[in-house]
Description:
The protein is α/β, with parallel strands linked by helices. 38% of the residues lie in helices and 19% in strands.
Amino acid sequence: MLDYDKEADAYDVTRGGEPRAAAAADAVLSLVPQETQSLLDVACGTGIVTRRLAAGRPGLRVVGADAAYGMARRAAARIPGAVLLADSRRLPFADGEFDAVTSVWLLHLVDGPDDVRAVVAECARVLRPGGVYVTTVDKAAAHDVGSDIDAVLVPRPRRPAQDRADRVETYAVEHGLSPAGQARFRGYGQGRSPRGTAADLRRGWYTQLPPGEPLTEHFAVRLEELPDQEVPRPDPEFTLRAFRKPVAG
Length: 249
C-alpha cells in the first residue's frame, strides 16, 4: 500500500486533479438529499473532493477526517477548521451526529472484510436516522476498461476486492442501512498509458507485484511492447452506492 503521508503533495496531480474531483463531488451530491445540513467525509485525503462538496451546497456543514497526517494537512489548507485526524474504524463523533456520511475511494484500501465491516459500522453509527451514507465500490474493476493494457495484465495476481458492491451492501444491511440509489462518474485523467503503467508496476503500486520481482518485470516488459506508449487509454468510470438509515418507529 502507498505511504499516503509521502504521497500527499503529489497525490492530486497524479489522479486527475480538479476535473476528477468535480465529477466525484457532483455524483456524491446527486445522492445526498437537499435538506442535508451536515456531512462527514471519511478518509477525505487531500480534501480536493471535500472542498467541492462544501462549495456545491451552500449552508452545508462539511467535516473531513483522515488517518494520514500528510493528507489531513493538505485538506486543512483547503477547508480550514473542518479537518481532523481520525481512524475510519473508530470515528471520534457521537452517534447520529451527521445527516450524511461519505467515503470516496476508501473501502478498497482496507486490509480485509473485518475492517470493511468496521468502517461501514462506524459510518452507520454516526449517521442520524433518515440520513444517507455514500461510498465508492468496485474501484479496481473500474480501471479495467477493456484496453490492451488490461489484456496484458489479466493473468496478474490480484488482491481480493474488499469493496465489491455486493459485499458492501451486505455489510451496510447488517448495520441497519438500506440501499438508496447509485451514481457513476468519470475518473478524468486516470486513463492508463503503457509506459506509465509499467512505471507504476516498478514503483510498487500493484500490491501483489513487488518491485524487482521477476513476475513484475515480466509484466512491465510486456507493457513496453505495446503501441502508443504515451497515449492514455479510456478513463475509468467509478460507481457510488447510497444507503439510508431508517427512521425509528
